[in-house]
Amino acid sequence: MEKKKENGLVLDGKQSGRVINGPTNPMVTPLLNDLYQFTMAYAYWKAGKQSERSVFDLYFRKNPFGGEYTIFAGLEECIKFLANFNLTDQEIDFVRDSLPGCEEAFCDYLRGLDCSDIEVYAISEGSVVFPKVPLLRIEGPVAVVQLLETPFLNLINYASLVATNAARHRFVAGKSKLLLEFGARRAQGPDGAISASKYCYLGGFDATSNVAAGRLFGIPLRGTHSHAFVSSFMGLDEIVDKVLRSSDGKSTCEDFVCLVQSCLTKIQNSSSLQGIFSETNQSELAAFISYALAFPNSFLALVDTYDVMKSGIPNFCAVALALNELGYKAVGIRLDSGDLAYLSTEVRKFFCAMERDLKVLDFGKMIITASNDLNEETVDALNKQGHEVDAFGIGTNLVTCYAQAALGCVFKLVEINNQPRIKLSEDVTKVSIPCKKRTYRLFGKEGYPLVDIMTGENEPPPKVGERLLCRHPFNESKRAYVVPQRVEELLKCYWRGNADEAREELEPLKELRNRCIKQLENMRPDHMRRLNPTPYKVSVSAKLYDFIHFLWLNEAPVGELH
Amino acid sequence: MEKKKENGLVLDGKQSGRVINGPTNPMVTPLLNDLYQFTMAYAYWKAGKQSERSVFDLYFRKNPFGGEYTIFAGLEECIKFLANFNLTDQEIDFVRDSLPGCEEAFCDYLRGLDCSDIEVYAISEGSVVFPKVPLLRIEGPVAVVQLLETPFLNLINYASLVATNAARHRFVAGKSKLLLEFGARRAQGPDGAISASKYCYLGGFDATSNVAAGRLFGIPLRGTHSHAFVSSFMGLDEIVDKVLRSSDGKSTCEDFVCLVQSCLTKIQNSSSLQGIFSETNQSELAAFISYALAFPNSFLALVDTYDVMKSGIPNFCAVALALNELGYKAVGIRLDSGDLAYLSTEVRKFFCAMERDLKVLDFGKMIITASNDLNEETVDALNKQGHEVDAFGIGTNLVTCYAQAALGCVFKLVEINNQPRIKLSEDVTKVSIPCKKRTYRLFGKEGYPLVDIMTGENEPPPKVGERLLCRHPFNESKRAYVVPQRVEELLKCYWRGNADEAREELEPLKELRNRCIKQLENMRPDHMRRLNPTPYKVSVSAKLYDFIHFLWLNEAPVGELH
Known about the structure:
2 copies of one chain form a homodimer. Chain A is an alpha+beta fold. Helix content of chain A is 37%, strand content 19%. At the A-B interface, helix 1, helix 3, helix 5, helix 6 and helix 7 of A face helix 1, helix 3, helix 5, helix 6 and helix 7 of B.
């Protein structure tokens, strides 16, 4: 195994001649595991069962956020985990000390463990996915597969949840808006922040403020300044170096402060703005000027430290105009409080009035960014009220998935030693679908996906143009014939132990993001709407249906009505 | 700086002769930051303001979970961040490339940055804390302090939130119950899982199932097995090695399976249990026997894979009895579904009946563990219904803080160059309390804390037995005289740059946990109750009150009614 380390981050892991690219989180070791995965491994080993070939499905039971779709994410991290799976001697010592009565020979067993006997089939990361359909099918020695359960669930649950949350925010904001993830400070821990940035980008966000995530994953970075920056200035006399070269480098403004002040007067006297504001806050103006002197090419100011319309906007416009005179173009403003619909509309009017009155090309088109505790609902409410916001900066609600903080993926045994296993429950939604399965997505004439179907491993695949009976796995009366116009097999092999052939390559984050955006665009609109969306259908083949119910009967306790 | 690395985790960081103990999360670098902290640092630097002495307060505005208290956690991680603060050349290159027009000299400035000019005063970690009172006061060069904002908020927000959540679960479960954190699979990312385990322990949990957290922080580990373990067995013939030595090592049972079967028959025939169950599930029995053979000293079984009362409990009891005959003591069971109040009561009756009928000492006292999507409300509901649960395993709702997934700590400039700064807002709860402050907790006759008070840095401290006017910071009419029986200064110095003297030592996690438990016990009960708790009072001195309102008037925009 070759590794390049920097700051503790493994930047490349190599396994059996294949390089697994991208950063690996060093917290993700085999000890990131529930103790009982190790106690079970030990019990399997003691019973001589540790190598029995098992098949587990990883899936979820319910879409999050009251919606009818989920974005699958976290697969790459799982594959990297497999590639880097090994227990150090110190870790093995710790496991031994944690298992009462643990025999030394078990430690030798752990020492030799790797994932060369594991096969993982998965839906492509970034896909739109649905309840009950396996996101991953994991095959291998039962003791080893059980050691993957907790890390895989950990790596997929949050990744998929936050990617879905991001996709939902994108849906409500619309394609044309810029979506910025601003969550680092409120995320659930440092890695929560970094994962959030990664998977929000995958789910359709445009950029993040998180520098570490930008660096690790190549996500575009955005950010302006905070209120503290504005408050840290007392007045214009603090600005010592007032010189600014023009954008083309051909001339030099010796006193940018003076230029800004003259622009402010121009604004005050402009025909349509007369009397709208009087004196602006001078420490705010000093802060804006300083920021513009540092970033003349990308000036974006937070305008609500004092009063948006009476101070922030006039101050910003004065600086923007002065920059304009030197050939620069200001980017825009950010609003972080107040009535965002009203303020954004007023700000746009102000910008447009300036473009008209002062003849500054494109001044009316400057970017208005809104932040301040935004979420799906508030963006939706803004849309209904009408607003002029171009970019949304979304933090807390997005990254902590405030509306629903967890996705409940489970990891269920469906076959061992070629014997199918079913987990029954009084709650029918918790009954597992047994057998090693194949899964397909069937597409209709309009190109929309119609239904996902699970079949036994050895059933012939659905054929284009051929009528196929799709059954609800547990409800006898729910069934439909479908004639697919296109059939896509969902589970592909992403890990096949040491065998290198025929394994899907991990794709760059940007590709996953493109897949996500494309698949979402291709969904039938009624599955996507926020209010009462139509559930997407998930089915089993007639043969699998019969088999499930045959097993169910056999497993149910005597005399019980399950 | 001396560092010992293992698996990418820095286990010891040393700074200026002081060892900062314990593991450091390698994801926590200065790049775990919002881009705008760097753009501001650059703008400060361009304006020549980078070294201006600033004071920032870190505090929250509202207690989480509808409660009236919060547990402060995350301090140790902040101090470690300071001790390890440095930007690598690659990181600096990345920052340069992310800042448009960044001058090379700024990179030199970044290269020389450390936290030797920073002072941090903080409330002791594990303390009960309240809104508006600074948890940390951070002093130092403004550009450096701003680079601490996002990492500190990230490290404290979730830590304090989840510790508070744990404390609330402890409160409702009561002192006598065992509380186990089972959240690794549902936590928000790998580090979310590890932080959750750490801070749930701090907040009063007894153990975790998370092996990595157990190892990193010395938290007791607990865990049993999963449904998959039970499902993986087909029948008793799978058990090959049936030998079990007795607990004292003096005798050997050659066929433990046979012994269990005879115990099962005994149970079936025992006077008070006759007819309660008939045939138990044999694959479940096989799984239990295998687990007991692996862990005869700590046998704890999950009993709800098939049917708790008809299969799981009789099977468990048969194995427990057989173990008992060999001198071992089974630990108990876990219930992971169904009506936990009813089932736990029925299970207890069953255990007690067995103790009575079969004369097995303490059999009735075996531990009943409950899991399955538990939270504050469900534990409270169980208490109201009456139950026999001894231990709660709590996962998703605990670690993701499902009821409220974020705490909103903020980081506000309160002074720069010895000038006080106030951040106004139309929303009075968002107005910051200016000035470098001291804070005290005043205790009454009964020993309860009465009120927290903030004063200016140079005001004389409150004195025991002396009448003191405590004012609401923003509401003129809210004021009260208090005669403290004890006064505790809250902010202590935890970081003083390179100066080693007079700095608080970081305490072991167990000490923080003890502080948390002790302080919670010492709160007046009406602040703690779940329904409509009384808010704890947070106040300012008369002098600080006057100063806040003097500044407020001066800062408010002309003609505005704030």
